[in-house]
Amino acid sequence: MKSWCLVVVFVTAGCSSIEQATVKTDWPAKQAIDGIWEGSFDINGRGPYDFHAIHVNGRSTAVSSKAKAICAGSVEANDDFYLANYMLYSLDGAPFDSARLTGYLKPNRIESHFRTLSGGDVGALNMDYNPIYEQPSDLSLLVGDWQFIDRDGLTISMTMVAGQWSGVDSDECVYEGSIAVINPNYNVYDVNLSIAQCDSVSGDYQGLAYLDQAYRLRMDVLNSLYGFHFDFVKN
After folding, report:
1. How many CA atoms lie less than 13 Å away from 18 in the CB half-sphere?
2. pTM of the entire structure?
3. N or C: which end of the chain has fewer CB within 10 A?
């Protein structure tokens, strides 16, 4: 059952008028596996490749700029045992395989190995916890105009107000969506995005985002056809 806090907002002498408001207090508790995780992996002896992952409430997205890959899936930890299942996408492209990771969750570190289920590729993936996860999240931090320029020069210009965002890119694709706080004590946001007037890329996407040390809004959004990573910079 949800717990709520009642707030008394107005009292006058001789009589009182009480208006009740609700304040949510049952935010999801932080699990040991939750956080921003950064590290590297090798695959079939090649590497290292960078790896940046978001874990929250059993969900995960991750991206590797050097490997030009992005993924989404589930993560869990049972005591110190770590398990993840990911769908793998080409960065800003389509899915090409899936992977299963197993390993160990240590204090502020994950050490794991993986195998891709179709290609049979194998490798090691190790990550360290980034304490920036423990910065608070608040929609007021996101209000304003943001811009992202991809490696091919495509520019996306977005405006965010009260958890809603909209914009266009230099190819005249239209973007609309919402961004929500998952737990105000931690630096991860839930993202929903719709892209329109954009040929095969048009559709609805879901993902996760956080603000990094450089105040970039790092965002992963995916659906069954495409996966995109954005590093939005505030204007």
Report:
1. 5
2. 0.87
3. N
Question: In this model, does residue 9 exceed pLDDT 80?
Answer: no
89-148: pLDDT as tens digits = 999 999 999 999 999 999 999 999 999 999 999 999 999 999 999 999 999 999 999 999
Among 24-28, 52-56, 98-102, 192-196, which is the least confidently predicted range? Answer: 24-28
200 touches 222 (CB < 8 A): no
The whole-angstrom separation of Cα 129 and Cα 165 is 29
Burial 135-169 (b: 16+ CB within 10 A, else e): bebebebbeeebebbbeeeeebbbebeebebebeb
Domains and CATH numbers, the chain: 35-132 (2.40.128.380), 135-234 (2.40.128.20)
Torsion of CA 207, 71, 203, 214, to 10 degrees: 50
- 60 C-beta neighbours (distance < 10 Å), count: 24
Residue holding tokens 């929250």?
A: 56
Are 90 and 78 in contact, with CB atoms under 8 Å apart? no
How far apart CA 203 and CA 194 sit, in angstroms, is 6
Q: Could you tell me the end-to-end alpha-carbon distance of the chain, in angstroms, rounded to an integer? A: 42
77 vs 32: CA distance, rounded Å: 7
Q: In whole angstroms, what separates CA 200 from the centre of its chain? A: 23
